């Protein structure tokens, strides 16, 4: 159970962990695999987990266990981030929040044991306590059923087709053989635990930038003000990127930074959201920054094996300042993507 606490800036690192530590009962923070759902009511459905740009099912990127101290209704609290990994799109992003009081329908009142549970033989969870079925490919709600065997469940036609190609075509004919033959569909991201550490306050020496080289020769026809403003823009761009590098230099492996209500650090001066770019929560409250995903995570996702792939500089997640509990189930929050600019 890697708890992220509001207040200080905390860093997340990806580490290999035994599968049991990444199950829902352990309240994990983790990357990849299938989501370890927190509350089992009101899961986002196939429509909410479809890419808003291309319509294909989104892939689970990571989840954070981020309870709010002092909030009885958010004794447990999880944030779940999804992205589109279907080429050529690879651009859609969505994030959901779920929270539960300590007394709830799904988990014990006591914290989970630090020891591995007795082996149940259950490798992949395909059913919720309510009986609702999960998709064999992505682990999200699977309201569609294979019409032949009536045992395999999917979120979408898309994933049914993937599973069919990956072996369900054979397993479908063998009754009772469906659940324990889940192939690698080449859809999920590799799975890691996210280990949280508080950021060291010591900031590394900021290397003084060398003097700007003189531009020799004719300035051509460009007006002086334009050149001046270009130069200013470029040096501002350099400065922001340099600050970003300095900030992560001590812990270059960090895959995320958590700090509810803190300011994100941007990799570029381009495409920084203004206040009006962050939509309010439907409850009426403002959304505030909660965590950011760093470009280092891309190394763990190994997403580029498919060619055109997911990419980002920074993903900044903003959540309801009130962390409202109006709706039971999963509430969509807001994610802002900033790319690495390729300005010279
Ligand atoms: Zn898409
Ligand atoms: Zn699916
Ligand atoms: Zn079937
Ligand atoms: Zn709200």
Describe this structure in words.
By secondary structure, this protein is α+β, with helices and mostly antiparallel strands. It has a domain at 124-181. 13% of the residues lie in helices and 19% in strands. The protein has helices at 157-171, 224-249, 297-301; strands spanning 10-15, 30-31, 59-65, 76-83, 93-100, 144-145, 153-154, 192-198, 256-258, 287-293, 314-320, 331-338. It has a ten-stranded antiparallel β-barrel. The longest helix has 26 residues, at 224-249. The radius of gyration is 23 Å and the shape is globular. The structure holds zinc ion (4 copies). May be a DNA-binding protein with a regulatory function. May play an important role in cell death and/or in regulation of cell proliferation. Residues 135-172 form the MYND-type domain. Keywords: Apoptosis, DNA-binding, Metal-binding, Nucleus, Ubl conjugation, Zinc, Zinc-finger. One of its GO terms (biological process) is apoptotic process.
Quantity of strands, as a count: 12
Number of helices: 3
Distance between the termini: 43 Å
Radius of gyration: 23 Å
Ligand catalogue:
zinc ion
The largest β sheet comes out as:
10 strands, antiparallel, barrel
């Amino acid at each position: 159970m890697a708890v992220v606490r509001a207040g200080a800036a905390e860093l997340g690192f990806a580490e290999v962990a035994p599968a049991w530590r990444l199950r829902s009962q352990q309240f994990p923070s983790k990357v990849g695999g299938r989501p370890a759902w927190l509350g089992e009511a009101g899961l986002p459905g196939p429509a909410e987990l479809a890419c808003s740009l291309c319509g294909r099912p989104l892939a689970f990127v990571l989840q954070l266990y981020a309870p709010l101290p002092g909030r009885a209704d958010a004794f447990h609290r999880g944030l779940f981030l999804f992205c589109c990994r279907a080429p050529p799109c690879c651009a859609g992003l969505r994030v959901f929040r779920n929270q539960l009081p300590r007394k709830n329908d799904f988990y014990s009142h006591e914290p989970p044991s630090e020891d591995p549970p007795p082996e149940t033989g259950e490798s992949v969870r395909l059913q919720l306590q309510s009986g609702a079925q999960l998709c064999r490919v992505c682990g999200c709600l699977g309201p569609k059923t294979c019409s032949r065997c009536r045992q395999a469940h999917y979120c979408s036609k898309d994933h049914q087709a993937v599973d069919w190609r990956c072996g369900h075509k054979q397993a479908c004919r063998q009754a009772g053989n469906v659940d324990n033959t889940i192939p690698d569909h080449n859809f999920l991201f590799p799975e890691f635990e996210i280990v949280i550490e508080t950021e060291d306050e010591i900031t590394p020496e900021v290397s003084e930038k060398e003097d700007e080289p003189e531009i020799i020769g004719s300035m051509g026809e460009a007006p002086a003000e334009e050149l001046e403003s270009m130069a200013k823009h470029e040096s501002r761009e350099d400065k922001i990127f340099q600050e970003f590098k300095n900030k992560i230099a001590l812990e270059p492996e960090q895959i995320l930074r958590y700090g509810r209500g803190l300011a994100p650090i941007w990799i570029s001066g381009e495409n920084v959201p203004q206040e009006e770019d962050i939509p309010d929560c439907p409850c009426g409250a403002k959304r505030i920054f909660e965590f950011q995903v760093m470009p280092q995570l891309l190394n763990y996702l190994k997403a580029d094996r498919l060619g055109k792939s997911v990419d980002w500089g920074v993903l900044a997640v903003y959540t309801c300042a009130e962390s409202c509990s109006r709706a039971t189930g999963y509430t969509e929050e807001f994610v802002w993507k900033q790319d690495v600019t390729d300005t010279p």
